[in-house]
Design goal:
Length: about 140
């Protein structure tokens, strides 16, 4: 039996291994294309002639909220359109869900991991100092 995956196997496992907890994606807002106003403009910054001649910078406006996102990460218009939509979803998620947004969930997980690492490090240094005192090595 052959199983076809829509995502590459490497991305799926790296995401599972990295977080080890499940993120709640149920509250992430969905974008309706009719609520978007999309413009293609010339980008700014380094790039010389290709930036000056091509309009591959994407400006997305979410009409109900008035949020504007500008993306000029790539030379490809399609990649910039895709990235701009991802940025808009992330912004909307942060505004609407606040503490339950995906970024807030990831931050909580990272804070918890760093706190456990810090506690382990402190415990190890305490054990080392106690051992040195016991062995009269100081």
């Amino acid at each position: 039996m052959l199983r076809i995956l829509t995502k590459p196997l490497k991305e799926t496992y790296s995401c599972i291994i990295r977080t080890k907890t499940t993120l709640d994606h149920s509250k992430v807002p969905q974008i309706v294309e009719s609520e978007l106003q999309e413009q293609f403009v010339r980008g700014s910054g380094p790039g010389g002639q290709s930036v000056n001649k091509t309009a591959n910078c994407v400006v997305l406006k979410h009409i109900p909220t008035g949020i504007i996102v500008k993306c000029h990460d790539s030379r490809s218009l399609d990649e910039n359109r895709k990235t701009a939509r991802e940025l808009l979803i992330r912004k909307l998620d942060n505004i609407i869900n606040q503490e339950e947004s995906i970024e807030a969930q990831k931050k909580r997980i990272d804070d918890k991991k760093s706190a456990t690492k810090r506690k382990k490090r402190e415990k190890l240094t305490l054990l080392k100092t106690e051992w040195k005192k016991r062995e009269n090595l100081e």
